[in-house]
Amino acid sequence: xxxxxxxxxxxxxxxxxxxxxxxxxxxxxxxxxxxxxxxxxxxxxxxxxxxxxxxxxxxxxxxxxxxxxxxxxxxxxxxxxxxxxxxxxxxxxxxxxxxxxxxxxxxxxxxxxxxxxxxxxxxxxxxxxxxxxxxxxxxxxxxxxxxxxxxxxxxxxxxxxxxxxxxxxxxxxxxxxxxxxxxxxxxxxxxxxxxxxxxxxxxxxxxxxxxxxxxxxxxxxxxxxxxxxxxxxxxxxxxxxx
Length: 242
Ligand SMILES: NC(=O)c1ccc[n+]([C@@H]2O[C@H](COP(=O)([O-])OP(=O)(O)OC[C@H]3O[C@@H](n4cnc5c(N)ncnc54)[C@H](OP(=O)(O)O)[C@@H]3O)[C@@H](O)[C@H]2O)c1
Fold this sequence. Notes:
With about 240 residues, the protein is of the alpha/beta class. About 40% of the residues lie in helices and about 15% in strands. The chain binds NADP nicotinamide-adenine-dinucleotide phosphate. The site of NADP nicotinamide-adenine-dinucleotide phosphate has 30 residues, from helix 1.
């Protein structure tokens, strides 16, 4: 009997690492739902993939908006009967310049509002999506949740500055463990990864890695076999310290 085509949802799929994850998953034959903050952005990205010979579905998703997440869950149930793979890729990094000479990265200066906004996207976004989508995975007895985290969140190697971004990724790692523990034995696996320093709008032009290199571990985790790890943190497909 032919295996059912897996359905994969990617957040922030319109550019950067998320777009590349969509490209690679579609190239592997998964049915990809490329999401972006607006349907227009998602469709424009889908056209770019179409030029590469790849077809993807599109949907609007703002990960900070409860109603938007619920709409996506309904869309997936209606059109696909649920979802098999969730890649929590969407992320923000707000520690830019304030234009007044202050060190923009210092915890002495970073406004609490930046920390709150960063948490709402990088941590609460995946929280909302897991609550909305994981139940349908459990019902199917199969699921792969991939949290795109960062070495910036590693407690083992915690440095100063960029407090909002760092804390959001440390907490995302904790959330990865919590989901993984509660899902043990269900067929649903939850793992986190660091893509390395990647040339995107966030990573900047000086970053050493291509998006293809940055996406590789996410693709591996999204398509893990039944024996694969659950509740781990990886870079280049290898475990790294929390
Ligand atoms: N690049 C690196 O060196 C690096 C290193 C470590 C970890 N990471 C992580 O990798 C992930 C992707 O990073 P990237 O470098 O590809 O970043 P990017 O080029 O800045 O792209 C970020 C993506 O997230 C989307 N996004 C932001 N807020 C959103 C929201 N509220 N709802 C839905 N989508 C939202 C953006 O959509 P818009 O186009 O609408 O803004 C965009 O599609 C992030 O989680 C990041 O923290 C990146």
